[in-house]
Amino acid sequence: MSKSNIEEINRNIYDFKNKDEYDFKIKKGLTPEIIEEISNQKNDPDWMREFRLKALETYNKLELPTWGPDLSELNMDEIATYVRPKTSLNNSWDDVPDDIKDTFDKLGIPEAEKTSLAGVGAQYDSEVVYHSMKEDLIKQGVIYTDMETAVREYPEMVKEHFMKCVPVNDHKFVALHGAVWSGGSFVYVPKGIKVEVPLQSYFRLNSPESGQFEHTLIIVDEGASLHFIEGCSAPKYNKVNLHAGCVELYVKDNAYLRYSTIENWSKNMLNLNTKKAIVGKNAKMEWVSGSFGSKISMLYPMSILNGENAKTEFTGISFAGKGQNLDNGFKVVHNAPNTSSLVNAKSISKNGGICTYRSLVRVNEIAKNSKCSVSCESLMLDDISRSDTIPTADVRTDEVEFSHEAKIGKISDKTIFYLMSRGLTEEDAKAMIVRGFAYPISKELPVEYAAEMNNLINLELEGSIG
To answer: How many other CB atoms are there within 10 angstroms of residue 388's CB atom?
Structure first.
């Protein structure tokens, strides 16, 4: 029987790159003088300038993680932390420079805005270059803008929430983010407002040997609802790029938020992102996550269930090919009675790729009558790939329902033989198994909203005889 190969994701649509032209690029490294210069370039208010400098002090005090993938190749002296493109913020695609507009055209973002989205933000390197939202949402009081505009126009709301959900001392790369953050999205949905059509932000890193540090801050007020989508990609270079963004989500009492994200960085990217949500009484937070790119990923979204009857669900899939080490997972803290969490995580590894599911479930003593169910499944497509499951459960009350199920395995030769006996080729049989494995996750991803996401979720499972 000839050996068949499941193709990795076809990245041709994402690996195109523009000439590294910019209006301003900070010198490489991480010093107080560099932080001051970023603050000057962004015309920060005094409180933000002081915040950045204190974050740098915290960064210098904290150590690199001693667990997970090896981060020794990261040298901040070789990373430019701020790159401003040759354009300002625009509210019309026609005003965006042709080379940048062409990038987002290829990724399908303008078309998705026309057909499937209520608002779009597009970031190129360190700055948001385009932003728009439908007029009816503006009339309802919904705010959707870039973070710099929010700092200037909604200072009290930003001060109250900025890096309170994700404190600067959380870990070394959160502190780094606090010092050099740039760009990102700010969303506020007023009480009782239901945003029926999703909002989407897209982040594109073009400049080599640089980092992207966008900050996303979303507040869904009492009784309101929102679906927010984030996508990201970058072309491949021969040297390390760094992504250390931060996502803070506040889901107030009786509110609902679904946050869908596609992490599709190139294989020279270190993706060290941090995402957390604080969930109020009778509120629900849903995470839908796809992790397909980057050389190294360390990403563990977290829900903190602070209100009685708060709920969270996490649905995620990762795909690691040759040279990739994707260390992903989910964390949840049950901090009130009658809270519930449901986790469904899957991973696929091939050609020596490494997938790790690393999780934390904490049920505090006050969280009586809470429920938690965790399921993680890993599929290896060959004998040289690796998959690990590292769950942590910290349950501090007996009045709880808790279950954890983990499965790790390879494609069954018997299953392939059975499908081939029904007329399928070996490659089609393998592709069918992989698609079936991924389907419970992929059906939750917002593929109908953007061509870029659709290309990812299809996973490019075209086989070739080798």
So the answer is: 14
Q: Provide the 10 A C-beta neighbour count for residue 194.
A: 11
191 class by beta-carbon count within 10 Å (0-12 exposed, 13-18 middle, 19+ buried): middle
CB 191 within 8 A of CB 221: yes
CA nearest to 214, candidates 246, 169, 176: 246
DSSP secondary structure string for all residues of 342-389: EEEEEEEE-TT-EEEEEEEEEE-TT-TTEEEEEEEEEEESSSS-EEEE
pLDDT value of position 457? 39
Strand order of the β-sheet with 199-204 is 127-133, 119-124, 199-204, 225-233, 256-264, 284-291, 311-320, 340-349, 370-380, 400-410
Helix and strand totals (H; E) in the chain? 11, 27
Q: Report how far residue 24's alpha carbon sits from residue 228's, in angstroms, rounded to the nearest whole number.
A: 30
**Which H or E element spans position 463?**
strand 463-465
Residue type, 194: K
φ and ψ of 383, to 5 deg: -90, 0
Question: How many C-beta atoms surround the C-beta of residue 39 within 10 A?
Answer: 21
Phi, psi of 430, deg, nearest 5: -65, -45
The strand pairing partners of 219, in sequence order, are 188, 250
366: its two tokens: 């006050």
The stretch 324-332 carries a mean pLDDT of: 96
Q: Please write down the HEC assignment for all residues of 117-137.
A: CCEEEEEECCEEEEEEECHHH
Listed ranges 96-100, 347-351, 444-448; the one with the highest mean pLDDT: 347-351
Residue whose C-alpha is closest to residue 116's, from 453, 457, 456, 441: 453
Compute the distance between CA of residue 209 and CA of residue 48 in angstroms, rounded to an integer. Answer: 26
